Amino acid sequence: MCLMDDARRSNIGAKSQVSITHPSRERIQTIKSLWDSRCQQPADASPSAWHGNILAQREKALRQGADRFKDWSMVKEELLR
Q: Are 6 and 20 found together in one domain?
C-alpha cells in the first residue's frame, strides 16, 4: 500500500543519487522515496516472472510458519544501529 504525503511526494527525485556510505537514516529515506515513486505507477506494478516466483516461495514459507514478518519499526531500529 502506498501512503505518501504531499511533502514526500514533492521530494521524490530531489535526490537522484545516494551512496551506500551515507548515514543509515538517509538510506532509509531513499528507500521510502523509491517505494513512493514506485507506488505512483500502479499500472505496471506486476512483478516480473522471476520476482513472482520469489514472492510465491516467501508466501508459502509464511503460510507454513517457516518465516515471519518483521515490524517495520523494528527493522528501522536494526538498520540504524
A: yes
Q: Looking at the structure, tell me whether residues 14 and 32 fall in a common domain.
A: yes
Q: What is the 3-state secondary structure (H, E, C) of 50-76?
A: HHHHHHHHHHHHHHCCCCCCCCHHHHH
The answer to whether residues 1 and 40 belong to one domain is yes
CA atoms 18, 23, 26, 30: torsion sign:
positive
Q: Which residue is listed with cell 520469489? A: 54
Phi, psi of 75 (to 5 degrees): -65, -45
Ordered DSSP codes for 22-54: S-HHHHHHHHHHHHHHHHT-GGG-SPPHHHHHH
Q: What is the DSSP letter of 14?
A: T
> Residues 30-69: pLDDT tens digits?
889 988 887 787 666 677 889 989 999 999 999 999 999 9
